[in-house]
Design a protein that fits this description.
By secondary structure, the protein is an all-alpha fold. It is 57% helix and 0% strand. The protein has three helices and no strands. The longest helix has 48 residues. The protein is rod-shaped.
């Protein structure tokens, strides 16, 4: 019912903030360019045009950073799902998803699990004391 699609994760908040700042910079760039061509006496055209170019470049940087953060979220979700799948496969005893042998080489069987034999607890009791308590001495 509630599944997370690793190809479309939630966009991080920082990426949304950077996208918004990029939009504001592009709007400011358009306004500054319009002011540069408005021929107002109180406005220096060179500074207005430089501001328009600077705001445009800053907007592109913000959009680029936002896109990188979105893609990092996608990559992170894919890596997490890959490790989860491999961990599940290892716990079920299935072969690994990433084979370590080359396709042309013969596959060698994997050794089974090594289990330690159960050790009995040995307590040393002197023979005389064992006889007193009713145990047989070996």
């Amino acid at each position: 019912m509630f599944e997370i699609d690793p190809d479309k994760p939630d966009i991080p908040a920082l990426a949304r903030i950077l996208s918004g700042m990029g939009v504001l910079c592009l709007i400011g760039s358009v306004i500054s360019a319009l002011l540069a061509f408005s021929k107002y006496e109180w406005l220096n055209e060179a500074f207005a045009m430089a501001g328009a170019v600077g705001a445009f470049l800053l907007g592109l940087v913000f959009f680029g950073q936002a896109k990188i953060l979105e893609l990092l979220a996608v990559v992170s979700a894919r890596v997490k799902s890959r490790f989860a799948i491999e961990g599940l496969a290892k716990s079920m005893g299935a072969p690994s998803l990433m084979p370590t042998v080359t396709p042309g080489a013969p596959a060698t069987p994997r050794p089974g699990l090594i289990t330690q034999p159960v050790k009995e607890r040995v307590i040393h009791v002197p023979d005389e004391q064992a006889r007193e308590q009713g145990f047989r001495v070996r």
